Amino acid sequence: MAPTDLARVDFTELVPEPVPFLGQAAYIQLEFFESLARSVATAPTLTSKEGLSRAAGVALRKHHAFIAELRRLGVEPVDVMAPFAPAADRFRQASAGADWYELLLGIHVTSGMLDDYFARLAGGLPGEIAARVRGILAEDASSEVLHDELFAAIEAQPGLADRLALWGRSLVGDTLLIARSALRASDSADRAGDVEPVFTELIAAHTRRMDALGLTA
């Protein structure tokens, strides 16, 4: 399906109210920051630590930007994020992997898919919030760093590609579950067909990320 067809999907009736949307987005960025910080702490070289630390800084800036949006709406960010913490914590643990390379691929796959999805879903938010959310999510310092680290490791270590390809495939289902949870529960079941083209595009983008690493999605 062409991207122009996908763009016709109207999320206006599916997007939750701005406050829970921003709360979930803020907590997810905090989770990405924690995962990236872990990757920095366990990185094998100083060069890797430096690049990944920059990516972690971007995730933290996104988190703080969403917090600022919540405060702009007059709510306490911690209270809004709290309901999303258990599922997001489980998701982070499930995508951490067995070693540093699986951790990096987990971040690469999940942050890529969810940033794309939340940016698209933001189109249903009211007024200027939509533009600001898209602007927040547009900043990306992690994908290139993660790609370069993973590509170099795959080139240097025979057998790593097969293991990472399997790991990447296992991440898709849980990531799509988190994506679906951002929709209104009452609407998402009735209008699942409206949303499926977007999930198709998310999976297509995931496939391109995996292909760029020489991995089979």
Automatic annotation (TrEMBL):
- Which Pfam family, any one, appears in the UniProt record? MiaE_2
The record's InterPro entries line, in alphabetical order, gives: Ferritin-like, Ferritin_actino
Ferritin-like domain mapped to chain residues = 20-179
Protein name, UniProt field = Ferritin-like domain-containing protein
> What is the species listed in this Swiss-Prot or TrEMBL entry?
Agromyces badenianii
